[in-house]
Design brief:
binds zinc ion, 6 helices, Rossmann fold, alpha/beta, about 200 residues, four-stranded antiparallel beta sheet
C-alpha cells in the first residue's frame, strides 16, 4: 500500500480535516488527522494493519498503544499478527498499565500510535515498558508527522509509518491563522465534536 493510498483512505473517511487546529504539542496547524474517523471503518483499519504487519523487521510478542487514540489501532495490528493487544493510560499524568495488564520479563513489544507528531506519548510508553521489564522491538504508526524518517533513532528502535506527512505548524504567537482570524480560534478536534471547519 502506497502512502497516497493511505491518504486517500483518510480523505474518503473524511478524517483529514482542514481549518485552524491546536495540536497535542500546543502548536497550531491548518490540517488535522482525525484518525478515529478512519478507524471507524474496520475494513480500512484491517487493511492498514495488514500493511504494518508485513513491514515489521522483528516479530513482537505483544502490541501496545497509548489510550485512547491507539486502542483500536493496537487491537487491529495485534489481530493481524495473532497476538494480544494492551493499552497504556495516564494516571495522574503518569503513563501506566492498568486493568490487570502485565508484562512477562523480556517480553517483546511493538509500540503503536495512530498519528505520530512529537512522539511524546510513544516515548512515555517505551519508558514504561522498559521500566516493567519488557523489551521494545519497534514502533509503528499510520501517519508520521514528525518530519523525521525515524524519530526513535536515538532510542535505537526501528520505526515504520504508512505515510510521512510533515505537520505544517506554528507557535500560537507566529500562527498566521490566529493573525488573520478568518477561521476563528484554534480548536482541538480530539476534544470538541464537529469542530472541523471543512473537511477534504
Ligand atoms: Zn492559530
Amino acid at each position: 500500500m502506497e502512502a497516497a493510498e493511505v491518504l486517500d483512505l483518510f480523505r474518503s473517511s473524511r478524517a483529514l480535516l482542514e481549518g485552524h487546529f491546536q495540536l497535542s504539542s500546543g502548536r497550531h496547524s491548518n490540517q488535522y488527522f482525525q484518525c478515529a474517523l478512519l478507524l471507524a471503518h474496520p475494513r480500512h483499519a484491517q487493511a492498514l494493519a495488514k500493511e504494518i504487519a508485513a513491514r515489521l523487521a522483528t516479530r513482537p510478542e505483544l502490541v501496545i498503544g497509548p489510550a485512547l487514540g491507539a486502542v483500536v489501532w493496537s487491537q487491529e495490528v495485534a489481530r493481524e499478527l495473532g497476538l494480544r493487544s494492551f493499552f497504556s493510560e495516564r494516571v495522574d499524568g503518569q503513563m501506566s498499565l492498568r486493568r490487570g495488564f502485565e508484562l512477562r520479563p523480556g517480553e517483546k513489544l511493538l509500540v503503536v500510535e495512530d498519528v505520530l507528531t512529537t512522539g511524546g506519548s510513544v516515548r512515555e510508553v517505551i519508558a514504561l515498558v522498559r521500566q516493567l521489564g519488557g523489551q521494545v522491538v519497534g514502533v509503528a504508526s499510520i501517519v508520521n508527522r514528525s518530519g523525521r524518517k525515524n524519530p526513535f533513532e536515538a532510542e535505537g528502535l526501528p520505526f515504520t509509518a504508512l505515510a510521512d506527512v510533515e505537520a505544517v505548524s506554528w507557535t500560537r504567537e507566529e500562527c498566521p491563522l490566529c493573525k488573520s482570524g478568518a477561521h476563528g480560534p484554534a480548536v482541538k478536534p480530539g476534544s470538541r465534536p464537529g469542530a472541523a471547519k471543512t473537511q477534504v
